[in-house]
């Protein structure tokens, strides 16, 4: 039986199509999601040689690996991280959901991390005793205190500024500590696990004091741009996060960095 050249081309086309549609997932090329971040140890940290570590880095990397999605990490100042996600130039960001961020991102129901913030001040502050009893933003307002924070801090935008509390903003997150040490504001509201390490790194431990004043817990999520093709992965990402919480994977990651911080301080 003779087979025409035209029929041979048809057979090749069909074989290629079948191969494309039925490639085994284990051998499929991974998609690449772009996630922006700003270094803030121990949540996320990049060494000079490019090696990355941190609680958020390990949690999100493990979850995306289970989704067979490769991550392209891109580091920028915090405001640019958010603007890139808003514009669709990047797919995701790891942070606290806010009303403003919900206008350009979507997220998953289950937080992968909770941080509990406390009040820092400079040593010798005359209102230190009042700071020890702070429990909410209203207490800060009633005490007549000013807050030092960084550009793009959504929690501060939603909880501090609306009360009319004076806020001094640093361009970069690690600049808030020299500002506090030089008394350019009364307090900084931050997560002690990360803050104490940064304060020590900047040799400001003798100038800055951790008070007993506390704030509410902040839930962290992966936020995906509404312009990203990865919006559809959020339900499955949430299922993986729930599984990682249930089997102790996330707790193990957190404890590793908590113990490291305790050894250093």
Secondary structure: elements and pairs:
Blueprint: H1 5-21, E1 31-37, E2 45-46, E3 52-53, H2 55-66, E4 69-75, H3 78-87, E5 92-95, E6 105-106, E7 113-122, H4 128-131, H5 137-142, E8 147-150, H6 154-159, E9 167-170, H7 176-181, E10 187-190, H8 192-201, E11 208-225, H9 234-246, H10 249-264
Parallel strand pairs: 1-4, 1-5, 8-9, 8-10
Antiparallel strand pairs: 2-3, 5-11, 6-11, 7-10, 7-11
Helix pairs in contact: 2-9
Description:
- This protein has ten helices and eleven strands.
- The chain has helices at residues 5-21, 55-66, 78-87, 128-131, 137-142, 154-159, 176-181, 192-201, 234-246, 249-264; strands at residues 31-37, 45-46, 52-53, 69-75, 92-95, 105-106, 113-122, 147-150, 167-170, 187-190, 208-225.
- Helix 2 (55-66) crosses helix 9 (234-246).
- Mean pLDDT is 88; it is low at 11-28.
């Amino acid at each position: 039986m003779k087979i025409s050249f035209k029929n041979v081309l048809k057979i090749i086309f069909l074989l290629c199509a079948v191969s494309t549609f039925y490639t085994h997932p284990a051998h499929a090329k991974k998609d690449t999601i772009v996630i922006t971040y700003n270094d803030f140890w121990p949540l996320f940290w990049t060494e000079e040689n490019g090696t990355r570590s941190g609680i958020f880095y390990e949690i999100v990397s493990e979850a995306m690996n289970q989704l067979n999605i490769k991550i392209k990490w891109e580091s920028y100042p915090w405001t640019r991280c958010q603007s890139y996600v808003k514009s669709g130039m990047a797919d995701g960001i790891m942070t606290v959901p806010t009303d403003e961020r919900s206008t350009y991102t979507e997220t998953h129901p289950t937080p992968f991390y909770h941080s509990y913030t406390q009040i820092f001040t400079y040593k010798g502050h005359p209102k230190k005793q009042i700071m020890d009893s702070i429990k909410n933003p209203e207490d800060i307002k009633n005490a007549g205190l000013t807050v030092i924070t960084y550009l793009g801090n959504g929690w501060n935008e939603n909880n501090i500024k609306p009360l009319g509390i004076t806020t001094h903003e640093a361009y970069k997150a690690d600049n808030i500590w020299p500002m506090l040490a030089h008394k350019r504001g009364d307090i900084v509201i931050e997560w002690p696990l990360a803050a104490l390490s940064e304060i020590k790194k900047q040799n400001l431990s003798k100038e800055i004091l951790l008070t007993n004043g506390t704030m509410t817990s902040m839930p962290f999520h992966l936020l995906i741009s509404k312009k990203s093709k990865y919006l559809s992965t959020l339900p499955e990402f949430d299922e993986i996060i729930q599984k990682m919480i249930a089997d102790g994977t996330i707790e193990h990651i957190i404890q590793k960095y908590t113990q490291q911080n305790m050894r250093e301080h």
